[in-house]
Amino acid sequence: MPENAELVEARFSGGPLLTLLVDRRDGLVDHEFTTRVVCAISPALEEEGYDGMVEVSSPGIERPLTKPEHFRRFVGHEAKVRVVEPIDGQRNFTGVIDRAGDEGFVLQLPEGEAEVEMPYSSVSRANLKEDI
Predict the structure, then answer these.
(1) What would the pLDDT profile of 57-105 be if each residue is shown by its tens digit?
(2) β 104-108/123-128 pair status
(3) Is the pLDDT of residue 132 over 70?
(4) Secondary structure letter of residue 114 according to DSSP
(5) Distance between terminal CA atoms of the chain?
């Protein structure tokens, strides 16, 4: 993968389609950049025997948060989080990422509600929630 690329998420979408969401540390994720990513990863995929289609794209404005570094990077941003096991009877949360450490993060809930501390291991899905 190009040196300035970050793999945000990899998933199989609709059969043999491998979808890679990549971010770029030094600019926009454009057609030239995604082409470089495909050229860089194709030999490794062929070596593993994968011959399906590959789609490479930007993570978009509702970017998945898949690593502790993502939560740290987006402190102060609003996120939607789903947890595996309910916390106080609730699985879905929306709030601002208040702080993030090595083991978990704190989500400040809206309108003066309490904050919720969540270990990363409890998260089944998390995305930025951006209003346009």
Answers:
(1) 998 889 999 999 999 999 999 999 999 999 989 999 999 999 999 999 9
(2) unpaired
(3) no
(4) P
(5) 31
> What residue spans in the chain does CATH classification 2.30.30.180 cover?
68-128
Q: d(Cα 122, Cα 83) in Å, to the nearest integer?
A: 5
Distance of CA 82 to the CA centre of its chain: 13
| CATH number of the structural domain 68-128 | 2.30.30.180
What dihedral angle (degrees, nearest 10) is formed by the CA atoms of 23, 123, 81, 65? -10
Helix (H) or strand (E) holding 21: strand 17-24
Going 30 to 31 to 34 to 39, the CA torsion angle's sign is: negative
Instruction: Please answer whether residues 79 and 97 qualify as being in contact, where contact means their C-beta atoms are separated by less than 8 angstroms.
Output: yes
For residue 63, what are its two tokens? 């970017």
pTM, full prediction: 0.79
| pLDDT band, very low/low/confident/very high, at 12 (cuts 50, 70, 90) | confident
What the block records as the tokens of 95 is 């709030």
